[in-house]
Amino acid sequence: MIKIQLTNRQYIIIDIVKKYQPITGEQIAEKLNVTRATLRPDLAILTMSGILEARPKVGYFYTGKSPLSLVEDYIKSIKVKDIKSLPVVVEESTSVYDAIVTLFLKDVGTIFVQDGGFLTGAVSRKDFLKIAIGNTDIYKVPVGIIMTRMPNIVTTYDDEPVYNAAVKIIEHEVDSLPVVEPVMGNDGKQGYKVTGRISKTNITKLFVKLGEG
Q1: What is the 3-state secondary structure (H, E, C) of the chain?
Q2: pLDDT tens-digit map of 145-176
Q3: Burial class (CB in 10 A: 0-12, 13-18, 19+), 145
Q4: Is 135 exposed, middle or buried (0-12, 13-18, 19+ CB in 10 A)?
Q5: Of 53, 56, 184, 191, which is the most exposed, with the fewest CB atoms less than 10 Å away?
Q6: pLDDT digit string, tens, across residues 54-105
């Protein structure tokens, strides 16, 4: 995890490099009236974090990146595959009752629906609540009747940044996204196989991990 807490001397070093780049470590030490050895840990932190760039026989350059922008870069480098969970999937023919039982047993907010191994829809707690308070026989009605169908399902994929997935969750006001991979059916049409899910809980756990360093 990239730390954003720099010391006062490290901030002064950054200012010196900005003003006099390229500048050698010896020259920086002279301006601070300290030895080169004293600065070695500071320069190591600043170069490893990407704030400064060291070029042999030339000196140090300022990269233009602030500590906050480095954290932003780090967050955007985390992929969906790094934090995704196992998907909760049922067949279209599953009864609404059995799907509700699955929802609560797995403790999720959304169940993804498939037919023949292909993602065909999704059903949420809200969808179940709507049908449960009506006069519908939830023991007989298949979940495929009440689900939101493809292509109206917002998806994500393994190599997409988690940041992008989080934006999708917020913009579309859903609690989770199916992680999918394209597959070709026997009829020659492209479909999607569900390989995982990204939820608000996944993202919250990631946020806590980042906070813990």
Answers
A1: CCCCCCCHHHHHHHHHHHHHCCECHHHHHHHHCCCHHHHHHHHHHHHHCCCEEEECCCEEEECCCCHHHHHHHHHHHCEHHHHCECCCEEECCCEHHHHHHHHHHHCCCEEEEEECCEEEEEEEHHHHHHHHCCCCCCCCCEHHHHCEECCCCCCECCCCEHHHHHHHHHHHCCCEEEEEEEEECCCCCEEEEEEEEEEHHHHHHHHHHHHHC
A2: 999 999 999 999 999 999 999 999 999 999 99
A3: exposed
A4: exposed
A5: 56
A6: 988 889 999 877 666 666 777 888 999 999 999 999 999 999 999 999 999 9
Question: What pLDDT is recorded for position 75?
Answer: 81
List the structure tokens of 109. Answer: 């907010």
Least Cα distance to 180 among 123, 127, 121 occurs for 121
